[in-house]
Amino acid sequence: MTTDYALQLMGEMLLTALFISAPVLVPVMVVGLAISILQVVTQVQEISLTFVPKIIVVFIAVVVFGPWMLRRLLAFASAALVNAGQLF
Predict the structure, then answer these.
(1) What is this structure's pTM?
(2) How many other CB atoms are found less than 10 A from the CB of residue 24?
């Protein structure tokens, strides 16, 4: 395995991790920000008010984007294994 291939594989791995996590993290961050603004405006500091909507958003995001995320991960893994097999 050459250094160039290892660096290329690491870059692809980081991009794949970013693309796989973004459909879940972005909606959760938006909901968290909206709830934080709502808590500041209404001065209601209830702990469950922050967690329950985030859990619901994560569940919906995984149901909606889960197949795409899995296809993306499998494509990366199979390409990495095929290319690793050709090196030796």
Answers:
(1) 0.78
(2) 19
45 φ/ψ angles, rounded to the nearest 5 degrees: -110, 65
Q: Where are the domains of the chain?
A: 3-87
Which helix or strand (DSSP H or E) is residue 4 part of?
helix 3-42
Mind listing the pLDDT tens digit for each residue in 45-85? 887 788 899 999 999 999 999 999 999 999 999 988 888 77
Q: Are 55 and 24 in contact (CB under 8 A)?
A: no
Transcribe 15-45 into DSSP letters.
HHHHHHHHHHHHHHHHHHHHHHHHHHHHT--
